[in-house]
Amino acid sequence: MPEQQNFQNHVRWYPLVHFVISPLLILNLFWQIFRLYQEQSFDRAENLILAIVLIMLSVAARLQALKAQDRIIRLEEMLRYRQVLPSDLAAEASDLRTGQMLALRFAPDAELPELVQRTLNGDFKNSKEIKSAVKNWRGDYLRV
Length: 144
Known about the structure:
elongated, 68% helix
């Protein structure tokens, strides 16, 4: 079982991306810059452009995966709001921004109504404040 998740340790690192692919792509970029500096030719410039495109491709793939997860979490939370919140509050909560819903997913059912109301009232400036207001953390162990 994973370590108990809380506000201090909830940031997820995906080892393959964060510690293998990204460092190797950055290392390759610096290598291609160095090689172009050593020998200025069309082939070296092409390799440098390819190194930049590979980094852009990696970032785009990661952002698309996170966006898909955000959409799924938003859907899950909207269903949860219908089950846990009074119907009028659930209807208002459907207007929350995605970042606010992502932060509220860490709130247990007992704390959710109060935190949703406070969020709707504008008591929180950002999602970090919402997350720090959660007393009994409800972990999200599936995010990658």
